[in-house]
Automatic annotation (TrEMBL):
Name assigned to this protein: C-type lectin domain family 11 member A
UniProt KW Plastid keyword: no
Signal peptide range: 1-19
Domain of life: Eukaryota
Coiled-coil regions, chain positions: none
Annotated keywords: Signal
Gene3D superfamilies tied to this protein: Mannose-Binding Protein A, subunit A (3.10.100.10)
Length: 314
């Protein structure tokens, strides 16, 4: 008979070669403002000699940065999440089947990019507990032309599903389309542009900008000189159903340097808005005297009901 210590070594060696932790990210790279969902799953294949005691998922900006725990699950199936109201967490720990822990974000931001680690604790009847880890790096990117085309196709599919693919819907005149989906503001002053306020609610910044481009314009670029005239026109129209009115400014790199979305030139503001991860776009707050505030580009409705403002040069 082998000494008991040798048996432990043999079991550990077998378990280490049999077990494999998979850490899967979908998508691999987050298109900020376009990706509608980001899912991270730590999967542990069934192991007939060692059983899963717990699964932990951690996140940091990079491999050398301090890690923050996102979620964990133990052998009883109890899930603890450290991301309240930000992401959904699910998973299970089973003896004769794969075990997993999944974190899912809706409308991910640049904050979800970075370095992830899954740490799994395994134990068995004849072996001491040990840990297996797996890591994965998730990138981020600004949407390019291909991404925009894909988004346009999604929007067309949405319109077709909502209104039906009828020829007259697609051949309606430009002016009819504007009057159906937008409200023209009466902006006084020296501006050489028309300003159209959307009737659609809760579009992302990218969806809003695409809609403005379909009109031949762009998300409104509000300078300090024009801000008073535009907000006065918005007050005349009234708040309507919206808490926020999205305009064309972005800090997608989280640097605190605000740029116009159309040409990435520096944007001047009447207020100071420092960098705030996940709050990378600008809007007028209709409930706070139309003050300019920061909101999420990919999920504006997280800060309230939103509309958007287009600018068309005349």
């Amino acid at each position: 008979m082998f000494p008991s210590g040798l048996v432990v070594i043999l079991v550990l060696t077998f378990s280490l070669t049999e077990s494999k932790v998979d850490l899967l990210a979908t998508p691999e790279t987050i298109a900020v403002g376009l990706s509608s969902k980001f899912t991270l799953t730590c999967n542990v294949p069934v192991n007939h000699t060692m059983h899963v005691s717990s699964i932990h998922i951690y996140h940091s900006a990079g491999p050398e940065q301090n890690m923050s725990q996102l979620a964990r699950i133990d052998v009883t199936g109890r899930i603890v999440t450290y991301l309240p109201n930000v992401a959904s967490v699910s998973g299970h720990v089973l003896v004769n089947e794969d075990s997993n822990l999944t974190v899912e974000w809706v409308f991910p931001t640049s904050a979800q990019a970075g370095y992830y680690v899954c740490n799994v604790t395994l134990s068995g009847a004849h072996a001491l507990p040990y840990h297996e880890t797996q890591n994965h790096t998730v990138g981020k990117t600004k949407p390019d032309f291909v991404n925009v085309i894909q988004e346009l196709r999604k929007m067309r599919s949405y319109v077709e599903s909502k209104f039906g693919n009828q020829t007259e819907k697609w051949t309606q005149t430009y002016e009819t389309f504007k009057s159906t989906h937008f409200i023209k503001l009466n902006v006084t002053g020296s501006s050489n542009s028309d300003y159209l306020l959307s009737k659609e609610l809760n579009s992302t910044a990218m969806q809003s900008d695409v809609m403005c481009h379909l009109l031949g314009g762009y998300l409104a670029e509000v300078s300090p000189r024009e801000e008073q005239d535009i907000t006065q026109a918005l007050r005349t129209y009234g708040n309507g159903p919206a808490d926020l009115i999205l305009i064309g400014g972005s800090d997608v790199d989280d640097t605190g340097n605000w740029l116009y979305m159309r040409n990435e030139l520096p944007l001047k503001l009447n207020v100071s808005l420092p960098a705030a991860p996940g709050q990378d776009c600008l809007a007028f707050n209709t409930k706070a005297s139309f003050r300019v505030v920061q909101i999420s580009c990919s999920n504006p409705s997280s800060s309230g009901t939103s509309m958007f403002l287009c600018q068309i040069d005349t």
